[in-house]
Design goal:
Elements lengths: L2 H6 L5 H11 L7 H13 L22 H15 L4 H8 L3 H13 L9 E4 L5 E4 L3 E8 L5 E2 L4 E3 L1 H9 L8 E4 L1 H12 L12
Antiparallel strand pairs: 1-2, 3-4, 3-5, 3-6
Length: 203
């Protein structure tokens, strides 16, 4: 199937999103009930924001999760897994939702091409490493008082991501970088296999 069609045709229920994130093993220490609770808590904070796609409702069954909604959930849970506080994850995810959604599409479509094309790195001793895909960087800073600041989400190519991760920082420790292309391709692959999940307790 064409890559654009894969993301355009994606439509999951809340239960299928829960199944997908479980299958991705992002937050292994959370059982299904706990993961479900966290996803619902994020949804109440408009992560994802269904009003952006014209959907209205209160219960999980009221919504259809399109590709962007699924990725909001995936990225939010990855940031949780990286140790960020819930309020900080919400702040990052709400910093520029429209730009985030644009980044999600590019990260999937350019997972191995365009800006995300593979790059070969060769060490002086002959060892080689291949890196590719696009990376999401919030370049977030958290003050000693717990206040978070971010310039907003930015996409990095492999070289920029390597430089960002391996850079020298003194008195400045930015956080919030995500291997977006890898997460996007994995999420779409698994989501396409998601079974129909019977509705349990409404929430």
């Amino acid at each position: 199937m064409d890559m654009l069609l894969k993301v355009s045709n994606l439509a999951l229920s809340h239960g299928q999103v829960l199944w997908t994130i479980e299958a991705m093993h992002i937050v292994e220490w959370l059982d299904r009930a706990a993961l479900d609770s966290v996803l619902k808590k994020f949804r109440r904070e408009k992560v994802p924001d269904f009003t952006e796609s014209g959907q209205k409702g209160r219960q999980g069954a009221d919504f259809v999760y399109r590709y962007e909604h699924v990725m909001d959930c995936v990225v939010a849970m990855k940031l949780v897994a990286d140790g960020l506080a819930f309020r900080h994850v919400v702040a990052l995810m709400r910093s520029d939702p429209e730009k985030l959604w644009q980044h999600y599409r590019r990260a999937f479509l350019e997972s191995g091409a365009g800006q995300g094309a593979n790059m070969e790195i060769k060490a002086s001793d002959g060892r080689q490493l291949t890196i590719g895909g696009l990376y999401l960087d919030f370049h977030a800073l958290i003050s000693k008082n717990g206040v978070l600041s971010t310039p907003g989400p930015r996409l990095l190519d492999p070289w920029e991501a390597l430089s960002r991760y391996m850079g020298l920082y003194a008195g400045l420790h930015p956080t919030g970088m995500v291997r977006l292309s890898q997460l996007a391709t994995e999420a779409v692959r698994i989501a396409q296999e998601a079974p129909i999940v019977k509705r349990g307790r409404r929430g």
